[in-house]
Amino acid sequence: FPFRLFPLREHGMNWRAKPLTCQEIQAFKKSEEVMQRFRRAYQLMLRFYGIILINEETGELRRAENWAERFQNLNRFSHNNLRITRILKCLGEMGYEHYQVHLVKFFLTETLVEETLPNVKKSALDYFLFTIRSKRKRRELVHYAWQHFKPRGSFVWGPHDKLLKYR
Fold first, then answer.
1. Other CB atoms closer than 10 Å to residue 26's CB: what's the count?
2. What sequence ranges are listed for the domain Opioid growth factor receptor (OGFr) conserved (predicted)?
3. What is the pLDDT of residue 2?
4. What does residue 62 show for φ and ψ, rounded to 5 degrees?
5. Could you read off the pLDDT of 107-126 as tens digits, one per residue?
6. How far is the first Cα of the chain from the last one, in angstroms, to the nearest whole number?
7. What is the dihedral sign for C-alpha 25, 26, 29, 33?
8. Please, are residues 17 and 2 in contact by the beta-carbon 8 Å criterion?
9. 38-73 burial code (b ≥16 CB/10 A, e <16)
10. Is 31 left (phi over 0), alpha (psi -120 to 50) or beta?
């Protein structure tokens, strides 16, 4: 069977890889060894993208030492955005919603505030944001994106009247 590093309950680009079942997800979550491997795989991919997980409990992230070189790769090759979307969805499946939130906020900060990943901005707004399962957390991130988006009038990811009133 083809193996997936970040399996999902939906078909991906590899037509031979079978989607996960709910029973498999529950079995994974019950196995400390599987979950430890999953966290290691996540950290491996983060390092590949120039990001470090600085707190395994909270999911807090920061740039790695080699971030500039790795961000060049992210900016040049858009297929990475599909992988990041897959990782985000898998984090949600595996019960790591707090990791999702930190990773999406990291990309929103790098694309909208620091402007280091201009070619990732569209994916961050169109796809990464909407992998967040918690409606409240997703709203917080949409508001964060709106606060930093330029020009603000062109922001289409949420109703401006509600974003103005958001607390």
1. 9
2. 5-163
3. 40
4. -155, 170
5. 999 999 999 999 999 999 99
6. 48
7. negative
8. yes
9. beeebeebbeebbbebeeeeebebebbeebeebbee
10. beta
Residue 62: beta bridge partners?
A: 52
What's the CA gap between 105 and 162, in Å, rounded?
20
In 10 A of CB 93, how many CB atoms? Answer: 20
* HEC secondary structure over the chain: CCCCCCCCCCCCCCCCCCCCCHHHHHHHHHCHHHHHHHHHHHHHHHHHCCEEECCCCCCCEEECCCHHHHHHHHHHCCHHHHHHHHHHHHHHHCCCHHHHHHHHHHHHHHHHHCCCCHHHHHHHHHHHHHHCCCHHHHHHHHHHHHHHCCCHHHCCCCCHHHHHHCC
Would you state the structure tokens that stand for residue 87, as one six-digit string? 């990782």
Tokens of 144: 């964060």
Nearest to 104 by CA among 124, 87, 123: 124
pLDDT at 18: 75
For CA atoms 131, 133, 135, 140, the dihedral sign is: negative
Q: Looking up tokens 């994106």, which residue turns up?
A: 145
pLDDT at 92 over 90: yes
Check: pTM over 0.85? Answer yes or no: yes
